[in-house]
Amino acid sequence: MTQAAPILLLLLLSVTFLQSGYDKIKDWKGNVSWLKGHFSETILAKQVPLALFTILILEIFSGVLCVSGIIELFTKTSSQVAYYGAILSCLTLIFLLFGQRIAKDYDGARTIVIYFVPAIMAVYILS
């Protein structure tokens, strides 16, 4: 299997984003409540539900594109969908990083960078 590295990277991103999206859907009120406190002193304080919905959509699309990319890599010689999944994953992580930096949650931002490294590796491998 010559596509093991991109498949494993896409699997990591799929699990990360689909689980996170599922958690947001399952406990929407709890997430909104916690995030309102997290962003209470920021420019995002009044935009929490909209920002959370935007992140939810980005995460779901990222996860679905990554899963579709895995299927594509198993069944075709093309990797276009996988590449777009990796790109969208990077953009989603940048949005999340922006939010953590705005909230001055530097530990949270550092954690997002840990996810960004494999995401950018997937982009590089698939390009």
TrEMBL record:
Keywords: Membrane, Transmembrane, Transmembrane helix. The chain crosses the membrane at residues 47-74, 81-102, 108-126. This is DoxX family protein. The lineage of its organism: Bacteria, Pseudomonadati, Bacteroidota, Flavobacteriia, Flavobacteriales.
